[in-house]
């Protein structure tokens, strides 16, 4: 068993980790309670974005905090009872919206996104899915000049990190995306240093198929138990059907379920909150099209062309992982999107809903769990797991092999929250 690894979770992060460890010669088994790519990795805008280096808890958050706390913004909603039970997470999150920790996070995320972009291109080629990739960037739309001016600090960060952008006026936007309502957006920022795919769920599935085709083992059954077995570095898994399996190493990549699993199985307490989000697909009237994802900064939604139709994604809601559905933000997003684009009929009867795992510093945990030999962690990617999954795998693979990683691993070390 000295070379065996069990990867728990087959979202983008888990599948990428399985592929990378397989490439390094480990015998990998991938565990997922459903088919790969059907949970959190399914519901996103499909953007692989350099611009995602700016986390939600940036220095500009302080100025907008009074309005956000009113709990009426389409961009951000929260459950007061959830925040009351998680004040430690909330204060830690706000404490890191200062210049120094912000720069540390932005620098770390930039390196992880760059690494992931290269890996996505490689994996898309190996999986035969390059046709899903668009390399024409995405657009930040502003409904007024004042709103555009208010984004100057973010543009300065992009410039400092070398993210290629171009400012557009209304006429230039019309030439680039004629389907958008003319004149509604006087200013636009074209983030050119980004790519997108037309189905993040299908890409994750394709990576999983590649893993299996190369000899990997996929087990679609939830892991109900995790405990030490035999030697200090060996682990035993208990599956939903009561069967067990032994492995030398375990990688926990369960996304928003990671914190609950580690607490229940090993007593490890991870300070995690959950960014609830929704999406729904629409047709388009009159043959209107979009060539790339667009982010309406005033309407607080992203509209992205997908294989299933135009995917409308909502703002963020902080709430419990198993909280009841709240359709308000998606309804507000649809209302705003119909002002900007001739959306047609809804494709699905019910919208997709999911949660993204967020740690207080908006950085994932990537590395060995302290005091737990053979246990490795890869979760906490907030809403950019699709952008950062493959880079996470490369970083984790190097650490597990005892090599020097391609980027600095210290900003992601689990010890910053686990003792």
UniProtKB/TrEMBL annotation:
InterPro entries: FAD-dep_OxRdtase, FAD/NAD-bd_sf. Residues 5-397 form the FAD dependent oxidoreductase domain. The keyword Membrane does not apply. The keyword Oxidoreductase applies. Keywords: Oxidoreductase. Pfam families: DAO. Signal peptide: none annotated. This is FAD-dependent oxidoreductase. It comes from Curvibacter microcysteis.
């Amino acid at each position: 068993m000295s070379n065996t690894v069990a990867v728990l979770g087959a979202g983008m992060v888990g599948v990428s980790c399985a592929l990378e460890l397989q490439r390094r010669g480990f015998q990998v088994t991938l565990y997922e309670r459903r088919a790969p790519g059907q949970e959190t990795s399914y519901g996103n805008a499909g953007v692989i974005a350099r611009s995602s280096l700016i986390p939600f808890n940036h220095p500009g958050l302080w100025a907008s905090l009074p309005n956000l706390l009113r709990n009426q913004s389409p961009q951000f909603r929260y459950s007061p009872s959830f925040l009351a039970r998680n004040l430690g997470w909330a204060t830690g999150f706000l404490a890191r919206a200062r210049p120094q920790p912000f720069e540390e996070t932005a620098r770390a995320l930039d390196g992880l996104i760059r690494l992931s972009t290269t890996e996505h291109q490689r994996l898309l080629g190996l999986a035969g899915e390059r046709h899903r990739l668009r390399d024409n960037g995405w657009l930040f739309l502003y409904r007024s000049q004042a709103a555009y001016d208010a984004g100057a600090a973010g543009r300065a960060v992009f410039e400092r990190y070398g993210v290629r952008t171009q400012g557009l006026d209304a006429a230039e936007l019309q030439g680039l995306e004629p389907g958008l309502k003319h004149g509604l957006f006087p200013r636009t920022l074209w983030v050119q240093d980004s790519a997108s795919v037309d189905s993040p769920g299908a890409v994750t599935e394709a990576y999983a198929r590649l893993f299996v085709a190369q000899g990997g083992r996929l087990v679609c059954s939830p892991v109900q138990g995790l405990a030490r077995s035999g030697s200090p570095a060996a682990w035993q898994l208990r599956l939903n059907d009561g069967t067990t399996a032994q492995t030398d190493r375990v990688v926990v990549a369960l996304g928003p379920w990671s914190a609950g699993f580690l607490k229940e199985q090993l007593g490890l307490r991870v300070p995690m909150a959950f960014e609830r989000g929704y999406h729904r697909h629409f047709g388009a009237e009159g043959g209107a099209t979009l060539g790339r994802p667009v982010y309406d900064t005033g309407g607080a939604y992203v509209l992205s062309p997908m294989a299933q139709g135009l995917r409308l994604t909502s703002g963020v809601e902080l709430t419990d992982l198993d909280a009841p559905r709240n359709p308000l933000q998606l309804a507000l997003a649809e209302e705003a999107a119909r002002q900007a684009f001739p959306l047609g009929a809804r494709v699905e009867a019910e919208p997709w809903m999911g949660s993204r795992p967020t740690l207080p510093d908006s950085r994932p945990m990537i590395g060995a769990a302290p005091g737990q030999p053979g246990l490795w962690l890869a979760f906490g990617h907030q809403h950019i797991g699709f952008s950062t999954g493959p880079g996470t795998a490369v970083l984790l693979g190097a650490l597990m092999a005892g090599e020097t990683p391609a980027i600095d691993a210290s900003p992601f070390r689990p010890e910053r929250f686990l003792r």
